[in-house]
Amino acid sequence: VISKLPQTGTTIFTTMSALAAEVGAINLSQGFPDYESSPELIELVTKAMKDGYNQYAPMPGLMSLREQIAIKTEKLYGAVYNPDTEITVTAGATQAIFTAISALIHPNDEVIIFEPAYDCYAPAIKLMGGVVKSLELDPPNYRIAWDMVKRLINNKTRMIILNSPHNPTATILSKEDIDELSALVKHQDILILSDEVYEHLVYDGVQHHSMARYPELQQRSVIVASFGKTYHATGWKVGYCLAPAYLMQEFRKIHQFLVFSVNAPMQHAIAEYLKDENTYLGLPDFFQQKRDYFREGLKNSRFKILPCAGSYFQSVSYSAISDEKDSDLAIRLTKEFGVAAIPVSAFYRKATDNHVLRFCFAKRQETLDKAVERLIKV
Ligand code: PMP
Ligand code: GLN
């Protein structure tokens, strides 16, 4: 066959998790918790199955879940989304992202992404015949130079993809970024795809700037979220998409043929669990503690600890330790020291390698202790 994605291999997450398993390393590479989700939530899923909710959910998602998502979104961001026409439950954020890009990108449309970028954006754009325009951001602060973004915009620019809190750099968009973005798109026919899967993982008392907060951005935005992140259950693959009705109408045309609907018992359980805002309001404290604990431990290592304002990732620079390629060091770290990390070069389309590794700190304290014990030997 003629490959539709000739440059694309197997994802770095699959590769590093497999290597970690093979050599028995502590896996801080792929982002997922090594502790259980809440017993109450698991009980609710079991109950939903026993109660017979095992057949197709409605195509856009269970209404009770969409209603709870609408309540949560209004409470947190002041935005009113109509559950009937503006909220769709998806098989994780990944499906929401792919669906949004398929629904909205035409051949030759240009899409601006910021690199390092989460790995699922560019392949979807290319599959639709779109053109990826990337702007590389530099460590340690990875700030967006908005004047550079402006230079990338022309009459083919169809979409800008944003991700805050950001994977892998752990940066967040500031109010200044929002103002720059608003000014930039104001008189343009440009959509925003906003990947907000780490919306609750923002630290140091700072607020998350969801696109939903800003009406002029909200009306051109598709926002994606993930219950896998929020409820420590990445294997459930349940997320959702928020968009104004004119965009959601197109989104659902694809969604209905991609998955039709998402697993029913989890939706029943999450709809119930989401009623209690404490199930997500405590997340910043919960993860900030882990972040601080891990960073404190790393202070005894030779790695340079980069800033972490949000997400459950901590990046480090190893320029003072080695001049190896980051992918080589990630493999060596896994095999020789027993800790798996993600080489950040995997998030660039070019061969950019700033000698940065990413660790996931959504782990039990014992796991972080053991990992730090090994990392200080590097
Ligand atoms: N976007 C970002 C930035 C992510 O880190 C992830 C990964 N976990 C996803 C999307 C995909 O989320 P999900 O597991 O819900 O598909
Ligand atoms: N989002 C997770 C990460 O960045 C990985 C998810 C996946 O493996 N697709 O580690």
UniProtKB/TrEMBL annotation:
<dbReference type="Pfam" id="PF00155">
    <property type="entry name" value="Aminotran_1_2"/>
</dbReference>
<dbReference type="GO" id="GO:0005737">
    <property type="term" value="C:cytoplasm"/>
</dbReference>
<dbReference type="GO" id="GO:0030170">
    <property type="term" value="F:pyridoxal phosphate binding"/>
</dbReference>
<dbReference type="InterPro" id="IPR015421">
    <property type="entry name" value="PyrdxlP-dep_Trfase_major"/>
</dbReference>
<dbReference type="GO" id="GO:0016212">
    <property type="term" value="F:kynurenine-oxoglutarate transaminase activity"/>
</dbReference>
<keyword id="KW-0032">Aminotransferase</keyword>
<feature type="domain" description="Aminotransferase class I/classII large">
    <location>
        <begin position="26"/>
        <end position="375"/>
    </location>
</feature>
<keyword id="KW-0808">Transferase</keyword>
<dbReference type="InterPro" id="IPR051326">
    <property type="entry name" value="Kynurenine-oxoglutarate_AT"/>
</dbReference>
<comment type="similarity">
    <text>Belongs to the class-I pyridoxal-phosphate-dependent aminotransferase family.</text>
</comment>
<protein>
    <submittedName>
        <fullName>Aminotransferase class I/II-fold pyridoxal phosphate-dependent enzyme</fullName>
    </submittedName>
</protein>
<dbReference type="InterPro" id="IPR015422">
    <property type="entry name" value="PyrdxlP-dep_Trfase_small"/>
</dbReference>
<keyword id="KW-0663">Pyridoxal phosphate</keyword>
<dbReference type="InterPro" id="IPR015424">
    <property type="entry name" value="PyrdxlP-dep_Trfase"/>
</dbReference>
<dbReference type="InterPro" id="IPR004839">
    <property type="entry name" value="Aminotransferase_I/II_large"/>
</dbReference>
